[in-house]
Amino acid sequence: xxxxxxxxxxxxxxxxxxxxxxxxxxxxxxxxxxxxxxxxxxxxxxxxxxxxxxxxxxxxxxxxxxxxxxxxxxxxxxxxxxxxxxxxxxxxxxxxxxxxxxxxxxxxxxxxxxxxxxxxxxxxxxxxxxxxxxxxxxxxxxxxxxxxxxxxxxxxxxxxxxxxxxxxxxxxxxxxxxxxxxxxxxxxxxxxxxxxxxxxxxxxxxxxxxxxxxxxxxxxxxxxxxxxxxxxxxxxxxxxxxxx
Length: 244
Fold this sequence. Notes:
Elements: E1 3-7, E2 14-18, E3 24-28, H1 35-49, E4 59-63, H2 69-86, E5 90-93, H3 95-104, E6 110-115, E7 120-129, E8 135-145, H4 149-155, E9 162-164, H5 168-173, H6 192-204
Parallel strand pairs: 1-4, 4-5, 6-9
Antiparallel strand pairs: 1-2, 2-3, 6-7, 7-8
Helix pairs in contact: 1-2, 3-6
């Protein structure tokens, strides 16, 4: 099964491709130009490396955010149009889940703190794994001002919790959190390789959706409207913060 995965929720977007024999290829979009200029060239490049065309892709997995509104719109619109035109199933992944996956493998509970700009972070708590090594998200993904992060983390009552994510540099600079060893995770960016890994597990569970169900996972309001009731924004329905 050939799966193409991508995440465009941050400036450091990426795409990954799983070939039938199990090989994984990866391409970065780069942060110098907007994703609208780099996404499709990266897709074409990674397919060319595998000697494939778009017609060979069988499933698309995409990070739905939360994150950059512009980046998410570019990524989701691109893959939604492709999937609709080619009648492909899609596996949506909450981008913070893709950050939590490699961090949880270190053996400690994880808090993902993603930069939301405006002095805020998107925060989610992952105490452990559930079936098929999927990160178990406890509670909602929330939007928190920087100054409230220490209290929110303390309320979890997990002294060994590991803090990761693109919001960490700002929080460290302000002295609001301590470094808990997240620096080895490429800044806590939701990488397409981890989107792909989650998608493979969810595919086995049959959690694909039709392109019409693909919507961004917005947390901040009123910058963008929340998804309508019943809209699927993640491949892991039923977990806190994943549905509107």
